[in-house]
Predict the structure.
Amino acid sequence: MNYIEEPARKTPVLAETDVLVVGSGPSGLAAAIASARQGVDTMLVERYGCFGGNITQAMVESIGWYRHEGTVESDGIGREFEIRAREFGGERKEPQSVSQVVEADIFKCVADQMVEKEGIDRFLHCLGVEALVRENQVIGVVTESKQGRNAILAKRVIDCTGDADIAFRAGAACTKAPKSQLEGVSVSFGCSGVNRERFLDYVQKNPGSLGQWATETSGKENEMFSPYLSEPFARAREKGEIPDGVLTGGYWSSLTDTGEATYLNMVYMLGLDPTDLADLTHAEIEGRKQAMMAIDALRKYTPGFENARLRTFGSSLGTRESRKIKGRHIMTGDEVKNQAAFSDSIGIFPEFLDAYGVVVIPTTGRFFQIPYGALVPESVDNLLVAGRCVSGDKISHAALRQMMCCTVTGQGAGTAAAVSVKEKVSSARVNIQRVQEALKKQGVRIQ
Ligand SMILES: Cc1cc2nc3c(=O)[nH]c(=O)nc-3n(C[C@H](O)[C@H](O)[C@H](O)COP(=O)(O)OP(=O)(O)OC[C@H]3O[C@@H](n4cnc5c(N)ncnc54)[C@H](O)[C@@H]3O)c2cc1C
């Protein structure tokens, strides 16, 4: 690669705050809300035009699809997301669980309102591009936006970018699997014009199951219902309408009374790196092409979809895995599967795993604790990480990436950052009992 020298320049300081959260997905929203509730100045910056991350940008509405009668929940801000969505009329029955989906566009308004209510300063259309680090302490972030390059100074920064963008730029140790091993990326889409009764009748007669697509389960999942469709794609492939290796199957989620399938997760593309510009560009364009092929197959081979048409694409590619920090503690799949407990627990999450073909559904009340150490980068202080880029091995990612789990790490990070500001100690040295007390006061279950 060729390089050029850029001239040194002065960067205007756009704002100063106590806690700066970069990225506003489930983790970032929870982090900012939790921090603001501790009474410290909090700012949230987001690169796109809405808060919500994958929920609003990739239309991933099935935030609680793992929930069954026996599931033990974390009881934090994630549950508030669902309650607020219900108050907005933005929820519908999720087809495979006792949960409701949160409607993607309505959730934009839910998030706006929650951010406003908590008095959080915020910028949309604001990309965090660089970490400002002095003597291994993060002191802020450089942003790029339509108004140019700015700095936001902060006593604590929480990286909720999903890709550990800020931690990586700050020089914190990060890992990223080779792209051949990363989870796939998706272009989500929705359809209108679905004949609901006809489609649901077809599903009832041809029910999908988790065992149909999972390669590893705990056994009890194999016969559980899954809104998974593969037959239309197999038939289209037989006819030469879909090439080999793409569109092997996918999920529908909720259906409105007026025949809209609001979230179809059927395009899953492997071998792409969500931090690589060429891969991102290819994935957006190829994903749309595959989505249109999927709609053709649905129209031809799925009763109820005969007159369906494209309603919407997610506003951005949905990504599931890229960089992760190497934290003070690296979560393992064994810990997730064996009810791990930690003295620095900041929350619990039910034993729900879904990635790489591994599926475990929390029907039995089992859960694991999440240690603060998984949010704390090894070598850079006053920086915390929450969401899918927290520290963990491959199999633990199958649980830690889940949206509700991201709200747990977000709420833990936001609370810890704020407590550390109030107590004037760095985030790495915060008194974990104080953090746990604050979380319990917010109704979070930590053990
Ligand atoms: C198609 C698909 C289906 C999925 N299905 C499920 C499911 O059913 N259930 C489930 O629980 N999980 C599911 N997941 C996984 C889940 O959506 C993610 O793991 C989760 O959203 C991660 O949350 P997060 O807060 O870490 O990051 P994200 O939701 O990715 O949010 C990151 C936010 O940060 C912003 N951002 C990124 N970089 C910057 C930057 N440098 N500066 C400023 N802003 C930035 C982004 O725009 C985004 O708003 C799915 C994922 C995909 C893609």
About this structure: Residues 277-301 form the longest helix (25 residues). Residues 283 and 343 are 42 Å apart (CA to CA). Residues 22-28, 45-48, 53-54, 58, 60, 62, 65, 127-128, 160-163, 165, 186, 188, 265, 318-320, 387-388, 401-404, 406 surround flavin-adenine dinucleotide (CB under 6 Å).
